[in-house]
Structures are given as structure tokens and as C-alpha cells.
Predict the structure.
Amino acid sequence: MIKQKATAGTLESSDIFVEIAPAEAGAGISLDLTSVVYQQFGPEIEAVIYDTLKELGVADAALTVKDRGAVDCTIRARIETAVCRGKGEE
Amino acid sequence: MRRSMLFLPGNSPNILLNADFLGSDAIILDLEDAVAPTEKDSARILVRNAITSLGYTREVIVRINPVESPYWQKDLQQIIKVKPDMIMPTKVSCAQDVKIVSDYIGQMEEEYGIPAGTVKMIPLIETALGVENAYEIASADPRVTAIFLGGEDFTADLRCKRTKGGNEIFYARSRMVVAARAAGVDVYDTPWTDVEDYEGLVEDAKFAKSLGFTGKSSISPRHIPFINEVFSPTEEEIQYAKDVFECIEKAKAEGKGVVSLRGKMIDAPIVARARQVLEAAEAIKGGR
């Protein structure tokens, strides 16, 4: 469960900036994604984000994500870091 | 064969993406000095994912934080499960420092079902005490397959200035080489820190090679071709090594006990050196 607002990543090339905030139980995931490659890969990036959240057991959260052309392993890493920080695990 | 090792910051996705294409024999993904304390969590997750997903073909070494820090165990919890080739523990000053890290790597290997001893170690020796204890560090644990001299922190510990001439690290270099060879492990030299001075780099690398170092590390990808060149056997050395073995074969066929080549008797050390040269040549397969 996300307890606090947290961020991870940067706005540098090949990175992705993630901001995560708590949401009401049952609210689900709200995702505001901007990406330099949204036209080409928007749905794929969203799928990676949703998939990573599911793996981490996050059902309710509000995310603002700014992608600078990150590959999947970077997207997953930054989402995981933001979730851990949001859960207060670090 | 490991001639060159390139330090790369562990929290930079762009650099991790290109790590395999920078020409070094090994890449050192850094979780220590190149990562701010506030980003240690982020870097270890990113490095873990990079090793899993990017299919590195170079040898992968992960530099972890010192055992006095609150980070090193968390580093290993994330990193061991993706089986890097080696872990580089930092500020190693005695055998106990090696054992502590090795034992924890062992616990992680067991937890993730990895055969015991899979992940090797290359301790970074960068204190006066570490240099004094170089042999006990090099022979502390079967995981240790090489040791590494960190010249910058070492000279800070000596309270002297780090110079391009390197007189202040001469004793440490020699001691490290002797310790490593006595323990039967490889030994790597400190980076050349002037990124633009290639002439100085080559001179420094040649000197390190002449002392017996196996290879040299770098903080700049632009240094890698020079380091690889210096630590590769020359064509002349390869030809001489081939001639040594041909000569031995010929002598055997003729039933001769004593063999000489170009007026010099071929004895065991010459054969050993020739074998090392041919093994190195085979390992790089003409690559530089």
C-alpha cells in the first residue's frame, strides 16, 4: 500500500521520472503518462507500468510519469523504486 | 582475458544501456562513489534490472558499498540473485572484511538457489592497512580471484598528493603485485584520472604492466583502447612464444634434453611465459 508521495528517476535521456501518490482503497490506478516516444510506444509503456505495479501488489495509486525514452528494464526499475519509497520501505 | 575494466555509474540508464559497447573486457557497475546516498536504493534496482535484461557479454563486476556503510547488505540482496561475475567490495583492509562479504554472498547464493561460490570477488584495496595486508586479503577466500589497487583513496590515507608520476603509489603497486602472485590471483591497477592525457595514460599503463599487473581500470571509455593495446601481447611476443614451443617439439623429436632458441637456453620460466602469451593471444583472438 502506498503511504506517501514519492518520486524516482530523472528527466535525463533514456530515463523516466515517476511520481507516485496514495489513493483511496478501490480507486485503482490513475496514470498520467507523457513520453517523447508516446506516438510510437505509448500503449507498450503503459503496459509495462501496469504490469510492474501488479507484480508489486499495488492496486490503488496515482502516478504521474514523464518518460525520456527509457527501455523496459529502466521503466520497471524506476516504478519499483517509487513504489518502495511510497511504501516507506527505504 | 581481462585487460581493461571500465567504471560506470550505476544510476545512469543511458550509460548502462551502452556499457557493453565501450570496448572494455569488464564493466564495473558502480553502486559506491558514483551514486549519491539518496539514490543507493534506486541504483541497485536499476543495476539488477540491467544485468537481467541487457544481456551483457562483457564480464560484469558490481562495486558495492563498504562494510562500514548501511548499504552493502542491501546491495548484495538485490545483486547476487542476478549472478554478476564478480563483486568488488570496497575499502577492504583485512581478511576479515573479505570473509564478512563472502559469507553474506554465500547466504544470498543459498537463498536464490545459486551454486555456492558462483559469484567471485575482486577486493578493492585503498587504505594503508589494506596494502600492508594485501597477501592475507588475496588469499582470504576462494571467491577472491583478483585484487585491485585504488590509488586515489590510498594516497588520501597516506596523507600525500596523488601525482602523475606516481612515486607515492610505487610501493603499494609493487606490494600488491607480489601479494597477488603469491596468492595465485590476478591484480589490477588504479585508473589514470586525467581523461585528456593519453600519452600519460599509455606510459602509466606500460609501467603497471612492467611491474606485473594483469590489467588496468579506467573511468573513461576513451582510455580503453590504449589500455587494451598495452596489456595485449605484441606480434613479436606471440611469434617468439610460438617459436619456443616449436623448438621444444623439434628437440623432443630429436631426443635432445636441452633446448636453446636464439642463443638462449629455454628453461621452465621461459616456457611458462610463452604459454601465458599464447593463452592471452588466444583469449583476445586478435582483438585490441
Q: What stands out?
A: Strands of chain A lie at 6-8, 16-21, 29-35, 61-67.
